């Protein structure tokens, strides 16, 4: 059972991790709403009483059953609760009726049963049927991922999946760079694009960026993922600043405009 003691000069947390199927999971911390101390914000899940047997999201909201945290490293080392990665994915359990645009009604594009990935700090956490859930807006869902490899993700709405270019191994002068001094690249190749955002009339506006394009994007935008063949990032189309090309004629045409 978790216990939390908050005081102005310090924060003391003592928690016993819960075990499910032999894996250690992050415990829920019971903290008064709105309480924060020295920049530490603790998000407490809303516990749904056992007398309720179902949850029906409204509007454009979606109910997701969260995947459990990884309790072990790739090498089999048991991870302490403090360093376990907070999941960003799960299974869609229920969906709302969608959104209305005047006389047009647009259904939610994510089906029940889909495996989805969502923004890291999105939604409201729920404890329902002894499992962790999240209720969030459809727009907070990054994409659908039915496999274990991020390159297979299908982005939603105005989001774009990009494979990040590898960092330079050496400087222009030929000096080898260490892992710590390599500059994080903000360029990559578009792998997949979403169907586009909804317009005022409820119709989709297709994205102008196409798969295969080399692009430059905002340095601190999007959500980063590690794939089997490299680093990936998913961001909104508005975070893409430019399309890169190696065709000198194309550069000349842009320069003369």
TrEMBL record:
Q: Does the keyword Chaperone apply?
A: yes
Gene Ontology MF terms in the entry: ATP binding; protein folding chaperone; protein-folding chaperone binding; transition metal ion binding; unfolded protein binding
Q: Which domain of life is it from?
A: Eukaryota
Output the InterPro entries linked to this UniProt entry. Chaperonin_GroES, Chaperonin_GroES_sf, Chaprnonin_Cpn10_CS, Cpn20, GroES-like_sf
What Gene3D superfamilies does this protein's entry cite? GroES chaperonin
Query: Entry's SMART domains?
Result: Cpn10
GO CC annotations on file: chloroplast; mitochondrion
One Pfam family, short name: Cpn10
Per UniProt, which keywords does this protein have?
Chaperone
NCBIfam families xrefs: PRK00364.2-2 (NF001531)
Family of the protein in this entry? Belongs to the GroES chaperonin family.
- UniProt protein name: 20 kDa chaperonin, chloroplastic
């Amino acid at each position: 059972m978790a216990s939390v003691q908050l005081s102005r000069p310090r924060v003391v947390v003592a928690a016993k991790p819960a075990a499910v199927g032999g894996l250690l999971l992050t415990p829920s911390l019971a903290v008064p709403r709105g309480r924060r101390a020295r920049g530490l914000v603790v998000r407490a899940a809303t516990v749904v009483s056992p007398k309720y047997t179902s949850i029906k999201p409204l509007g454009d909201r979606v109910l997701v059953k969260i995947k459990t945290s990884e309790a072990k490293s790739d090498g089999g080392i048991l991870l302490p609760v403090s360093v376990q990665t907070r999941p960003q994915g799960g299974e869609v359990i229920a969906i709302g009726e969608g959104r209305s645009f005047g006389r047009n009604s647009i259904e939610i594009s994510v089906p029940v049963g889909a495996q989805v990935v969502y923004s890291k700090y999105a939604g409201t956490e729920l404890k329902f049927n002894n499992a962790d859930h999240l209720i969030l807006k459809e727009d907070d869902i990054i994409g659908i991922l039915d496999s274990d490899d991020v390159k297979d993700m299908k982005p939603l709405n105005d989001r774009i999946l990009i494979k990040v270019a590898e960092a330079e191994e050496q400087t222009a002068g030929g000096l080898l760079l260490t892992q710590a001094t390599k500059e994080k690249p903000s360029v990559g190749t578009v792998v997949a694009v979403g169907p586009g955002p909804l317009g005022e009339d409820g119709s989709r506006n297709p994205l102008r960026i196409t798969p295969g394009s080399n692009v430059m994007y905002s340095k601190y935008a999007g959500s980063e993922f590690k794939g089997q063949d490299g680093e990936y990032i998913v961001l909104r189309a508005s975070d893409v600043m430019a399309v890169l090309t190696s065709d000198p004629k194309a550069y000349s045409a842009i320069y003369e405009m």
